[in-house]
Amino acid sequence: QVQFVESGGGLVQPGGSLRLSCAASRSIFNIYPIGWYRQAPGKQRELVALIHSASADSTNYADSVKGRFTISADNALNTVYLQMNSLKPEDTAVYYCRSLSSTAWGQGTQVTVSP
Length: 115
What we know:
Order of helices and strands: EEEEEEEEEE
Largest sheet: 6 strands, mixed
Shape: globular
Radius of gyration: 13 Å
């Protein structure tokens, strides 16, 4: 099954922005939908954004990130992105991406939002 490598995390102040990338080991054209998930310390992993194709209008978001996060995909680069704006301390978590047709998780990328 396809493997993903997440990158782009880091430490950012509240109100700041980050762009996460998720590079696939092969073509993503036929493995949609693909989601970004996050897991905060002591909490269960949750789905925050889902993209059903490379079209910008085929997306879903958790209520907690709606209007602040944007998921997108580039089939030519086999990469899925998560643009995160207006970050809050409660967005602190390890972020992962995964195709809904897969059971494998990558190592994720840490996002820390703190003054």
